[in-house]
Specification:
This protein is α/β, with parallel strands linked by helices. The protein has helices at 19-30, 68-71, 74-84, 113-120, 123-131, 135-143, 149-174, 178-185, 189-195, 211-225, 235-247, 291-298, 343-354, 399-416, 420-423, 432-438, 489-499; strands at 10-15, 35-38, 50-51, 60-61, 90-91, 97-100, 106-109, 229-230, 251-253, 258-264, 267-273, 278-288, 311-319, 336-339, 364-367, 382-391, 424-430, 473-476.
Length: 500
């Protein structure tokens, strides 16, 4: 590996190459900054990784897979044309998600308000009509640096719209749990069981404060935006962003472990790598790491108080033929199908995981990327992406236990896909421990880099704003506002602030 520090100084050095780093680096590089991104792993992209994990010709997104937050986010709006010119192409679907229940029934979330009202009842129309008039505030809270003038302007906009008493009532409504919102909104279990599993994708459970707000956000976002994925795999986004950064003179390197932020007289002046090289930064050091890494390793002073959330397991299947679902034929064409008894099933599984137990009936996320992008497997074959988001923190996983738990999950999926077990060419399971070994930010297999309970969310994730107490040092990533997901939100906020 060549040494950068002796030959070049950069305006900004970014630690880590996850989506927030790449979004930040791309915006800064395009704005004329000299950018250097250093990644400790041998593969760029953080939680975006595409590989032939099972059999040759089967292209799997190993960790994250679905990109609605990116496609609907501000970084893509600004960079999309340049990324497309570098080969990035997004594909989408009219059948984004469904839930298959144990009794063989199912419920679907479609792409228009009229279709969903017909599918789920007229209550759905009320949900959309109640949400959209204030969608600018909802998405604004998730896309704005709250501890800033922009955050203050957003608050004043809400105050002018609602008045003092109305604003208090509106904010109170944002704190309601998903359980309370769903049971008050929908009289039947079908719509509740359809929407409830999606709160897991925000790092919350259905009984947590603010989970009702996040449930509405993600449900309306899926209707309006679908579940887009890049043709050829998620790493196509990484490749395009890296090309853009390098095309504007930036440097992006893998296998470069940063062990310390160099601070002199209270100012961040660069980083030092594990092999002893110092890489200077004249204007900013930007760390896409967890708080415990930032304050426990990269800066002196010991670890900060911070809690991590439930663990995650990924299971990947290469199949000799496409999965054939029992029940509604649309399941064969739906991008993500959740398997759960419903709202109470999701709640029970989260509760069991929070008490240190392996859930008896976990919520299973069955991803079917071939419904959108058939190029990811040989013709006539099948491929499934499975996620389990309700595994206990701190559980000691052995390979044997991982495989036995994966067997349980496979048996449950096979009740809905009768040809699954006979069609398996190869199965690869990744336990929470495997995830942490692959990516140091996935502490305990937590895919969201920290619990999203109210005291670690919004302004408190993990502190107000992305600027740290060290001048010139910025903190981005899933552990910071607006939290996890492939939107690139925190990286975009910091880039725009620095460019101003």
């Amino acid at each position: 590996m060549h040494r950068l520090g002796m030959s070049r100084a950069f305006d900004a050095v970014i630690v880590g190459s996850g989506i927030n780093s790449l979004a930040c680096g791309a915006l800064l590089a395009r704005g004329g900054w000299g950018v250097c991104i250093l990644e400790r792993e041998d593969v760029l992209g953080g939680a975006i990784r595409t590989e032939e994990l099972t059999e040759p010709g089967f292209v799997h997104d190993t960790f994250s897979a679905w990109h609605p937050l990116w496609v609907g986010g501000p970084a893509h709006a600004e960079l999309g044309e340049e990324l497309a010119a570098r080969g990035l192409e997004y594909l989408n679907t009219e059948l984004p998600t469904a839930t298959a229940f144990p009794d063989g029934s199912s419920a679907f979330l479609l792409r228009t308000t009229d279709a969903n009202a017909a599918e789920l009842g007229e209550e759905w129309r009320g949900v959309v009509e109640g949400f959209l008039p204030n969608a600018d505030l909802a998405f604004g809270a998730l896309g704005t640096e709250l501890w800033s003038r922009a955050g203050l302007r957003l608050a004043f906009r809400a105050l002018r719209r609602f008045g003092p008493r109305g604003l208090v009532e509106y904010v109170g409504g944002l704190l309601v749990s998903s359980r309370d919102w769903l049971t008050e909104t929908f009289p039947s279990e079908g719509p509740r069981g359809l929407v409830a599993p999606w709160v897991l994708h925000t790092g919350l459970g259905p009984d947590a404060a603010s989970s009702g707000f996040m449930t509405q956000v993600i449900a309306v976002a899926i209707q309006e935006g679908g579940l887009p994925i890049p043709r050829g795999g998620g790493a196509r986004l990484v490749d395009a962003l890296v090309q853009l950064i390098r095309g504007h003179g930036g440097v992006v390197e893998a296998g470069r472990d940063v062990e310390r932020v160099v601070v002199r007289d209270g100012l961040a002046e660069g980083v030092r790598t594990a092999d002893g090289e110092e890489v200077p930064a004249s204007r900013a050091v930007i760390a896409n790491v967890t708080p415990t890494q930032l304050y426990g390793r990269l800066l002196p002073g010991g670890p900060v108080r911070y809690r991590y959330g439930r663990g995650d397991m990924q299971i990947h299947f290469a199949l000799s033929e496409p999965a054939r679902w029992e029940g509604d034929e649309r399941l064969n064409r739906t991008a993500i199908v959740h398997l759960t008894p419903g709202l109470d099933g999701v709640s029970r599984a989260v509760n069991e995981a929070d008490r240190g137990l392996l859930p008896e009936e976990a919520t299973i996320v069955v991803g079917q990327p071939l419904t959108i992008d058939p190029s990811r497997a040989p013709e006539g074959r099948g491929l499934l992406w499975i996620q389990l988001q309700e595994l206990p923190r701190g559980h000691e996983w052995t390979e044997d236990e991982r495989e036995r738990y994966a067997d349980r999950i496979t048996e449950r999926i096979a009740r809905h896909i009768p040809n699954l077990e006979s069609a398996i060419l190869k199965r690869v399971a990744l336990s929470p421990a495997d995830l942490e070994r692959a990516n140091v930010n996935l502490v305990g297999g937590d895919p969201y880099s920290g619990a999203l309970s109210l005291d670690q969310n919004f302004l408190w994730r993990p502190r107000p704003g992305h600027a740290t107490e060290v001048k010139g040092l910025w903190h981005i990533g899933a552990s910071t506002h607006p939290g996890p997901g492939l939107g690139g939100g925190s990286g975009t906020m910091v880039a725009k602030r620095l460019l101003r």
